[in-house]
Amino acid sequence: MSIHERIKGIRVTAGLSQEGFAESIGLRRGNYAQIELGNQLPTLETIKIIARNYNKSYGWLIDGDTAVSDAHLNAHLNAHLTEKNGTKTAIQAPTIITLDRDEKAIITVVGTRVAAGYLNGYGDPEFIEKLQTISAPGFTGALHRGFEIKGHSMPPIHPGAISIGRYVEKLSDIANRRVYIIVTRTDGIVIKRVINRPDEGKLILISDNPNKREYPNYTVDYEDIIELWYWRAAFIRELPDPSALYDRMNDLEAELTLIKQSVNQIQGKGGSQIKLNG
After folding, report:
1. What's the burial of 146, exposed, middle or buried (CB within 10 Å: 0-12/13-18/19+)?
2. Which band of pLDDT confidence, cut at 50, 70 and 90, is reported for residue 163?
């Protein structure tokens, strides 16, 4: 039985509706519904309130085990996402979502100006509530988040675009060579193509930009990962500068001209009479 099922069981046993139970623990019904559905984990404060109001132990609420002291609650909550051998296998779900007036989840956007603060504030309701929000058909806010892109490591996604990612709960769910938005303690927020190496407890992060001197591939340890989001779409604020594309086309045209000249010269020396026109 999961933490979501145990909390639902408390509500059902108490004979309360979702709205009534949410009110008793200081949440809006829409936020509580996401917890019961398993789309997000309750915050530490919510767990404490449930335990106090409904006479349950922290340990039972979190993993159905023995009681845990208040001082060790944070560590115990993180521990239920770890295998017994100490290898991290899952990532804590987003504990805070933003709702519109109809209590429907909308997408929170992390801009480049607040990216550094997000590493510490991703679990802080006051921080999250101040972020920009958007909505889009087919993207449920509870499981999606937007990140403004910085840098040129993943063309054609260019700086200023907002990439939308779907939350990844289990590291074993990673599809190799797909694009992910990775939030790490060391490098902050990056968007890369990923290869999973579970035996080593690492991810290999690959840039699509061919300039490997400026955008080298590198590894990140599981323990360094705060959040992981599967890239699904991008909102582009402006079209990229086409000059680079035109330059490549001109280079190809020049190369083709040289090839034609070389072939025609060979033919003039007695080769096959196949002329390239252009």
Report:
1. buried
2. very high
Q: In the beta sheet, which residues pair with residue 180?
A: 192, 230
Whether the CB-CB separation of 222 and 87 falls below 8 Å is answered with yes
What would the pLDDT profile of 202-241 be if each residue is shown by its tens digit? 999 999 988 888 889 999 999 999 899 999 999 887 766 6
Architecture of domain 3-79: Orthogonal Bundle (1.10)
Q: Is the peptide bond before 156 cis (omega within 30 degrees of 0)?
A: yes
Neighbours of 116 (CB within 10 A): 11
The answer, as to whether pTM is greater than 0.85, is: no
Look up the CATH superfamily of 98-235: Umud Fragment, subunit A (2.10.109.10)
The mean of the pLDDT values for the chain is: 79
Alpha-carbon distances of 76 from 36, 56, 144, 190, 198, rounded to whole Å:
20, 15, 26, 29, 23
Averaged pLDDT for residues 158-185 = 91
Residue 159 backbone dihedrals phi, psi, to 5 degrees = -55, 140
Long-range CB contacts for residues 110-115, cutoff 8 Å, separation at least 24: 110/145, 110/146, 110/147, 110/148, 110/189, 111/148, 112/148, 112/150, 115/147, 115/148, 115/150, 115/188, 115/189
Backbone phi, psi, residue 201, to 5° = 65, 40
- Where in the chain are the domains? 3-79, 98-235, 242-278
Is the pLDDT score of 67 beyond 70? no
User: H/E element holding 127?
Assistant: helix 125-129
Is the pLDDT score of 265 beyond 50?
A: yes
* DSSP notation for 211-274: -TTTS--EEEEGGGEEEEEEEEEEE-SSPPPTHHHHHHHHHHHHHHHHHHHHHHHHHHTT----
